[in-house]
Amino acid sequence: MKPMGDQPLDIPSNWELIDPELLTGTLLVIGAPNVGKTTFARHLYQRLCQTWDRVAFLDGDPGQSILSPPTMMTLALGERGEDAFPPQGQFWRSFVGAVSPRGHMLPMVVGAARLLRAASDAGTQVIVYDTSGLIDAAQGGMYLKLAKIDMIRPTVVFAIQYDLELKSLLEPLRRRRTVEVIQLRPSTGAKQRSFLTRQGHRAAQFARYFSGAHLLTVNWVRLAVFPAPSFVVNRLVALEDESGFALGLGIVQRIDRQFRQVVLYTPVTSLDRVDAIRMGDVVLDPQTFRDEPINARGFHHRS
Known about the structure:
alpha/beta, Rossmann fold, Elongation Factor Tu (Ef-tu), domain 3, 7-stranded mixed β-sheet, 5 helices, 28% strand
């Protein structure tokens, strides 16, 4: 399945002042929700494609993803000379297992490292990394952003903020010699989105992803299962290859604990490349595709 995209962009004139010829390496885009972060990241990616041969886009928001179903991060490569969105080249996905970084920051950091390594191995010259909107220090957002910056060493951090919500992060960054901080005002077209709107976006993305799914029976003792075979009906899982990249998602439909088998509703057609199953921390209604945290209905881990 190709990555998913969205619609035309509303571009502030000051964004056009950025010179893509001066940008290389990893470009990190940060900001709170509803500031036009993804709009800017898409615009920047498409302008970079007019200058560089190998440009990648990393969709790092597992809740409001645009290149993949929710719970995943996706790296997509542009074909040489094209600036279409979504990128039409090779892509890789890493499973976070939730629709928010809260409580899942290690998978976020590990997944980003894995995806950026794939981009480097593919000879990518510039990577636009669109991050999640979690910036609240009390919820760990600032610490997550700092961990990513320390790990990936971006050449530029593009910070989009209304007021001073990023001040505690940007002040020390501006004193570092290895990273440039470029502060931008939000897009005037950025709109506040309610919880129900965001949930509806996720449901639509899941519905599109599972539109061609079928039932697949898996004997879980033949595969690595992380962290344990804690299967419950409607739990979301990922099928991963030997490099840890997600080949696809599955929704648990039936469990046969006697024969250690589980039936998944998934678009994955074969287990030939599957090396592991990774448990998600959400349940997904296969009719409405609405997600809930795994413990929201009192589900308990069972082996």
